[in-house]
């Protein structure tokens, strides 16, 4: 049996983090430490799926396809963890600027202002 990792130091460091950058550093260290194990598990699951060629011609939902999916998902967990961590940092330290305010005289976004003295837009008055 593989020994379970001791998450205590990571959880303690996360609890002590005072900024998103500090929490990110802890998260990145955990993901970096977990990567070799998850990559090895993924390699094993691919090998199990390919054992004796059982994956050739296997239908969607079959055990070999499920093993291949599990191999992919184990690596996706790392990628998703990195992606979420980066999104947290960007939201905190590099937020998206608010959209520009419309200029006075504009009736719709993206249209230039009406020239001075131009007739009003819309339906023409009836006779």
Summarize the structure.
The protein is mostly helical and 127 residues long. 56% of the residues lie in helices and 0% in strands. It is flat, with a radius of gyration of 28 Å.
Question: What does the secondary structure layout of this molecule look like, with pairings?
Answer:
Elements: H1 8-16, H2 20-50, H3 63-93
Helix pairs in contact: 1-2, 2-3
Biased composition (Pro residues): 110-119
Region (Disordered): 90-127
Structural features, described:
The protein is an all-alpha fold and 127 residues long. It is built from three helices and no strands. It has helices spanning 8-16, 20-50, 63-93. The longest helix is centred in the first third of the chain and has 31 residues, at 20-50.
Oligomer: single chain
Instruction: Give the proportion of residues in helices.
Output: 55-70%
Arithmetic mean pLDDT: 86
- State the end-to-end CA separation: 89 Å
The major pleated sheet works out as: none
Judged by helices, strands and strand pairing, the structural class is: mainly alpha
Query: Helical element count?
Result: 3
Shape by Cα distribution = flat
